[in-house]
Amino acid sequence: MPLAGRGSGFAIKLIDCSRIISLRDNVDGHVVRLARAVHRDPATSVRPSTRSAYPELAIAMSHALPSRSALLIALRAPLLGALLLGAGPVLRAAPAPGAAPASVPAASTIAVGSAPEPAASGASAPAGHPVLDRIRARGRIVLAHRESSVPFSYLTPDGHPVGYAMDLCQKVVEAVRKQLALKHLDVGYLPVKPADRIAAIAEGRADLECGSTTNNAERRQKVAFTVPHYITGARYAVRADSPINELGQFENRKLVSTAGTTPLKAVEQANHERLLHINLLTAPDHAKAMDMVAKGEADGFVMDDVLLYGLISSQPDPAKFKVVGKFLTIEPLAIMLSRDDAGFKHVVDEEMRRLILSGEAQGIYDRWFTKPIPPRNVALNMPMNYLLRDFWKYPSDKVPN
């Protein structure tokens, strides 16, 4: 079946999936037309060697798709395009030449990584903007923040919230002020922990949560997320003299994580499925979990590795700890906001895209990950990883989990 796709930034058009692949990639305003006839039987798998045999596909995978492997994965399926989840724009059936366009039921549309299409002229507008209206009425926006999520959102010794996510949120605050045409917009702060951060947004006690919260499907039932500002994965912090190097070596040992976090859920599942007999402990926040490792009350702390490096750097003697193990999870971290105000989300998303595409977000990243940060003025020395760098080529709030 002929398929066609359309989205912001690039387009994919598939005409007879088994034979012709035509991709149009708009990169920095230059449109590159890439086409190659693929003469294969529809039931035949396209092997990884296709990448070298058809360099056009490699180019497209590197520049046009958020996931470099998504196109090749899709090509392995008999029906190309039906599996392009998370790899490009919304796909829909294309009419035969001369035929009238057919309407496509909502259930047959594949929601993926492109921005939503603009509403048709005359479409009804959203019924009110509760978050924007609330901010306008009180002249104040409330930022939820963490207390020990270094370097994303944490407190300095004088009790002031700072961090990478906090700086991004301050940029968003200015965008909201301009959108509401306010001369001044006060900023309030609300400390939250992993266990109550989602409720703080869902209940309207805070307007933005500026921290290290993972965007996943379960949480999107209650709240919304903007474009990820970091992509990380869960690993393990242990004492420097520990023999532990991987999850399996925690068998019959104590492993702590922070309550209400995705790494805790992931390690609970792995412990159950692999019958590891790990004694899992919970802590109310990251600082307490790290303290339990330092005092020997736990043999390790499972959390996003970037947070572990930040926590270790803030210890009196960072050399007493190390981060070990393969990634247990992949975590796209993003600013959290209400799912009940599409107008507010549009303002936040557009400001995040502006920051990323202008390079301003890169400068904010460098400030917190490659240069000395408070309170000890120690640098994390963590250049941007390839996961985030590639994702930011086409910034979107859509993530694969």
CATH architecture of the largest domain: 3-Layer(aba) Sandwich
Let me know the average pLDDT: 77
Low-confidence stretches: 1-126
Number of helices: 12
Going across the biggest sheet, name each strand in turn.
Answer: 4-3-2-1-5
Q: Which percent range describes the beta-strand content?
A: 15-25%
Cα-based radius of gyration, to the nearest Å: 23 Å
Q: Tell me about the biggest sheet?
A: 5 strands, antiparallel
Derived from helix and strand composition plus strand pairing, the structural class reads alpha+beta
CATH topology of the largest domain: D-Maltodextrin-Binding Protein, domain 2
CATH homologous superfamily designation of the largest domain: Periplasmic binding protein-like II
CATH class of the largest domain: Alpha Beta
Shape: globular
Share in helix: 25-40%
The separation of the N and C termini measures: 28 Å
Give structural notes.
This protein folds into three domains: 3-108, no CATH class; 130-231 and 332-391, 3-Layer(aba) Sandwich (D-Maltodextrin-Binding Protein, domain 2), CATH 3.40.190.10; 234-329, Periplasmic binding protein-like II (D-Maltodextrin-Binding Protein, domain 2), CATH 3.40.190.10. The longest helix is centred in the last third of the chain and has 17 residues, at 342-358. The protein has helices at 50-53, 55-63, 70-75, 130-138, 164-179, 197-202, 262-273, 286-294, 305-313, 342-358, 360-369, 386-391, and strands at residues 3-6, 10-15, 20-27, 30-37, 90-93, 140-145, 148-149, 153-155, 161-162, 186-191, 208-210, 224-225, 230-232, 234-239, 254-258, 279-283, 300-304, 321-324, 331-333, 336-337, 372-373, 378-379. The two termini are 28 Å apart. Mean pLDDT is 77; it is low at 1-126. The strands form six sheets. Strands 4-3-2-1-5 form a five-stranded antiparallel sheet, with helices on one face. 37% of the residues are buried. By secondary structure, the chain is of the alpha+beta class. Helix 5 (164-179) packs across helix 10 (342-358).
